[in-house]
Amino acid sequence: MGLYQSDWSKAPAHAHAYRARTSEAEGHIHLIEGFSQPANGSNTDCHVHFYSGITSFERGHYHRYYAITGPAIPRADGTHYHEIEGTTYLAYTSALPIRYGGVVYVGEGRRRETHRHTYKGMTREVVGNEPLGW
User: Fold this and answer.
1) In which domain of life is the source organism classified (predicted)?
2) Does the pTM of the predicted model rise above 0.85?
3) Burial class (CB in 10 A: 0-12, 13-18, 19+), 66
4) Are 88 and 55 in contact (CB under 8 A)?
């Protein structure tokens, strides 16, 4: 029995690579890249993927991000991609003088300045497909 592109229950689980740049904030940008979580889906069923990670390390800090891709967008060759868009979580604007791990966002009765970035991009190639009939 063959794979029907519009039947998501028969489509194999797959993941996507992704890469994007963040917006500039406080004079710097970050890169985000990784792999989405696997999901069953085809190029016509509007499935989505969860993805998360940490940005590149710049100016003594990084940001966390968590999001869900947009629905599958078909390509002419029968494959698909997803749009990604979001906002990173807060991080301190200046590096902390911490000797021994841990991050505290409020301490000693004073607040330190924080910032975040936005990003927008799209997934890249599909990875992790099992061969049909496996």
Assistant:
1) Bacteria
2) no
3) exposed
4) yes
Q: Of 2-11, 88-97, 119-128, which has the strongest mean pLDDT?
A: 119-128
DSSP 8-state symbol, 132: T
Cα angle value 9/14/17 (rounded, 5°): 150
| Non-local CB neighbours of 108 within 8 Å, separated by 6+ positions | none
The tens digit of pLDDT for each residue in 2-18 reads 444 455 556 778 999 99
Question: Would the CA dihedral through 75, 79, 80, 81 be positive or negative?
Answer: negative
Q: Please state the φ and ψ torsions of residue 111, each to the nearest 5 degrees.
A: -105, 140
3-class DSSP string for 37-96: CCEECCCCCCCCCEEEEECCCECCECCEEEEECCCCEECCCCCEECEEEEECCCEECCCC
